[in-house]
Design a protein that fits this description.
Helices cover 49% and strands 4% of the residues. By secondary structure, it is mainly alpha-helical. The protein folds into two domains: 1-60, no CATH class; 64-137. The chain binds zinc ion.
Length: 138
Protein backbone atom coordinates (compact mmCIF):
# COMPACT_ATOMS: atom_id res chain seq x y z
CA UNK A 1 0.00 0.00 0.00
CA UNK A 2 1.31 3.44 -0.96
CA UNK A 3 1.22 6.28 1.50
CA UNK A 4 1.81 9.88 0.51
CA UNK A 5 4.68 10.71 2.83
CA UNK A 6 4.70 14.35 1.72
CA UNK A 7 1.19 14.96 2.95
CA UNK A 8 2.18 15.39 6.59
CA UNK A 9 4.72 18.04 5.67
CA UNK A 10 2.28 20.30 3.86
CA UNK A 11 0.96 21.57 7.23
CA UNK A 12 4.50 22.58 8.26
CA UNK A 13 4.80 20.51 11.45
CA UNK A 14 8.25 21.96 12.15
CA UNK A 15 6.88 25.35 13.13
CA UNK A 16 3.54 24.10 14.42
CA UNK A 17 5.13 21.87 17.03
CA UNK A 18 8.06 24.11 17.85
CA UNK A 19 7.72 25.97 21.13
CA UNK A 20 7.71 29.73 21.39
CA UNK A 21 10.95 30.75 23.11
CA UNK A 22 9.93 34.35 23.72
CA UNK A 23 6.91 36.09 25.23
CA UNK A 24 3.94 36.35 22.90
CA UNK A 25 0.52 37.33 24.22
CA UNK A 26 -2.95 36.15 23.26
CA UNK A 27 -4.87 39.16 21.83
CA UNK A 28 -8.11 38.01 23.46
CA UNK A 29 -7.08 37.48 27.09
CA UNK A 30 -3.40 38.46 27.32
CA UNK A 31 -2.15 35.01 28.33
CA UNK A 32 1.60 34.60 27.80
CA UNK A 33 2.00 31.88 25.18
CA UNK A 34 5.75 31.36 25.81
CA UNK A 35 6.55 27.61 25.77
CA UNK A 36 3.30 26.96 23.85
CA UNK A 37 3.39 25.90 20.20
CA UNK A 38 3.46 28.41 17.34
CA UNK A 39 -0.04 27.50 16.22
CA UNK A 40 -2.74 26.37 18.57
CA UNK A 41 -5.43 27.26 21.04
CA UNK A 42 -4.90 29.58 23.99
CA UNK A 43 -4.88 27.50 27.23
CA UNK A 44 -6.59 30.33 29.13
CA UNK A 45 -9.45 31.51 26.89
CA UNK A 46 -9.55 28.82 24.18
CA UNK A 47 -9.26 31.12 21.17
CA UNK A 48 -7.23 29.98 18.18
CA UNK A 49 -3.97 31.78 17.50
CA UNK A 50 -1.13 31.68 15.02
CA UNK A 51 2.16 33.11 16.25
CA UNK A 52 4.13 32.48 13.05
CA UNK A 53 5.97 35.73 12.31
CA UNK A 54 4.23 36.38 8.97
CA UNK A 55 0.77 35.25 10.16
CA UNK A 56 0.17 36.71 13.63
CA UNK A 57 -3.51 35.90 14.06
CA UNK A 58 -5.07 36.72 17.44
CA UNK A 59 -1.64 37.73 18.76
CA UNK A 60 -1.20 40.94 20.74
CA UNK A 61 0.93 43.46 18.86
CA UNK A 62 2.12 46.44 20.88
CA UNK A 63 1.97 48.79 17.87
CA UNK A 64 -1.77 48.14 17.49
CA UNK A 65 -2.48 49.96 20.76
CA UNK A 66 -4.09 53.14 19.48
CA UNK A 67 -6.87 55.30 20.87
CA UNK A 68 -9.59 55.68 18.16
CA UNK A 69 -9.39 59.49 18.15
CA UNK A 70 -10.11 60.02 14.42
CA UNK A 71 -13.19 57.74 14.58
CA UNK A 72 -14.49 59.64 17.63
CA UNK A 73 -13.86 62.99 15.92
CA UNK A 74 -15.47 62.08 12.56
CA UNK A 75 -18.35 60.32 14.36
CA UNK A 76 -19.16 63.31 16.58
CA UNK A 77 -18.65 65.82 13.75
CA UNK A 78 -20.96 64.07 11.24
CA UNK A 79 -23.62 63.19 13.83
CA UNK A 80 -23.77 66.74 15.23
CA UNK A 81 -23.71 68.55 11.84
CA UNK A 82 -26.21 66.08 10.36
CA UNK A 83 -28.46 66.28 13.41
CA UNK A 84 -28.26 70.08 13.28
CA UNK A 85 -29.31 70.06 9.59
CA UNK A 86 -32.29 67.68 10.02
CA UNK A 87 -34.81 70.14 11.59
CA UNK A 88 -34.13 72.74 8.87
CA UNK A 89 -34.51 70.09 6.15
CA UNK A 90 -37.90 68.87 7.50
CA UNK A 91 -39.70 72.17 7.96
CA UNK A 92 -40.21 72.94 5.12
CA UNK A 93 -39.19 69.60 3.58
CA UNK A 94 -36.10 70.00 1.42
CA UNK A 95 -35.48 67.07 -0.89
CA UNK A 96 -31.91 68.24 -1.31
CA UNK A 97 -30.98 68.86 2.33
CA UNK A 98 -32.88 66.00 3.98
CA UNK A 99 -30.91 63.15 2.28
CA UNK A 100 -27.62 64.96 2.97
CA UNK A 101 -28.54 65.45 6.65
CA UNK A 102 -29.70 61.82 7.07
CA UNK A 103 -26.59 60.43 5.31
CA UNK A 104 -24.35 62.58 7.53
CA UNK A 105 -26.09 61.27 10.66
CA UNK A 106 -25.74 57.67 9.42
CA UNK A 107 -22.03 58.14 8.57
CA UNK A 108 -21.52 59.72 12.00
CA UNK A 109 -23.28 56.90 13.84
CA UNK A 110 -21.32 54.26 11.88
CA UNK A 111 -18.07 55.95 12.93
CA UNK A 112 -19.23 56.12 16.56
CA UNK A 113 -20.00 52.37 16.52
CA UNK A 114 -16.51 51.72 15.08
CA UNK A 115 -15.01 54.08 17.67
CA UNK A 116 -16.78 52.19 20.46
CA UNK A 117 -15.53 48.79 19.23
CA UNK A 118 -11.95 50.09 18.85
CA UNK A 119 -12.15 51.69 22.28
CA UNK A 120 -13.09 48.32 23.86
CA UNK A 121 -10.13 46.76 22.00
CA UNK A 122 -7.93 49.67 23.14
CA UNK A 123 -8.84 49.02 26.80
CA UNK A 124 -8.19 45.28 26.39
CA UNK A 125 -4.84 45.90 24.69
CA UNK A 126 -3.86 48.38 27.38
CA UNK A 127 -4.45 45.80 30.11
CA UNK A 128 -2.52 43.17 28.10
CA UNK A 129 0.36 45.64 27.73
CA UNK A 130 0.31 46.31 31.47
CA UNK A 131 0.31 42.57 32.15
CA UNK A 132 3.22 41.98 29.78
CA UNK A 133 5.24 44.76 31.43
CA UNK A 134 4.58 43.34 34.90
CA UNK A 135 5.82 39.92 33.72
CA UNK A 136 9.00 41.49 32.30
CA UNK A 137 9.81 42.88 35.76
CA UNK A 138 9.85 39.38 37.29
ZN1 LIG B 1 -6.36 33.75 25.41
Amino acid sequence: MMMDSNFAHTTDPMLSEQQLKYSVYCATCGYNLRHASYVGRCPECGSDYNARPLKLENIFVEGALRFPSSEVFIGLFCTLIGGWLVPGAINPVSFLMLPIAVIMVLIGLAHLVTAYRRFIKYLRYRSILKRSQEEKDD
